[in-house]
Design a protein that fits this description.
Strands 3-2-1-4-5 form a five-stranded mixed β-sheet, with helices on one face. It has four helices and five strands, in the order H-H-E-E-E-H-E-H-E. Helix 3 (88-104) runs parallel beside helix 4 (129-138). It has helices at residues 2-14, 37-41, 88-104, 129-138, and strands at residues 44-52, 57-63, 69-74, 107-115, 142-148. The protein is α/β, with parallel strands linked by helices. The chain has a domain at 41-63 and 74-79 and 87-148: 2-Layer Sandwich (Nucleotidyltransferase, domain 5), CATH 3.30.420.80.
Length: 168
Amino acid sequence: MAEIQTEKAAEPEAQAPKEAPKPEIKVQKIEPASPPAKLKKLSKWGVANIYSSGNNTIIHITDMSGAETIARVSAGMMTDKGRLKGTAYPAMQAGRKAAEEAREKGLYGVHVKVRAPGGHNTKTPGQGAQPSIRALIQGGMRIGKIEDITPIPHDTTRKPGGRRGRRV
């Protein structure tokens, strides 16, 4: 028995140390899942330019370049009373109508650009801006990003009326 033990003990010293075999790594290419056919069909995006002053709200939906008009609706078209043009309810109706027209023409979602009068006028949008954005969502449009593009002067703009003001 002692001989067997010595032989076994001698074997590992005589042999060169073996490296452990590396496991084989199989690389599989995973194809990205293609979107469903319905989403491919409805994945057209546009731009909704919303001009909201104290007196009216105008929603103008174009393609991404801004060259082709898809829908143009104003709150004044929704009401017959001039004093109500700047309020929230006609702006909501205009937003729903604009969204409906855009969906009919194959638009899936819009990036919203909100504009106030700016310059030497008010730099905050009128009360119809937020309801019109909500109405676009209720009309079935997806909203990408919302941006404020109100023109703001970086020096000053002179008020109309001249140095001595408006003479009445």
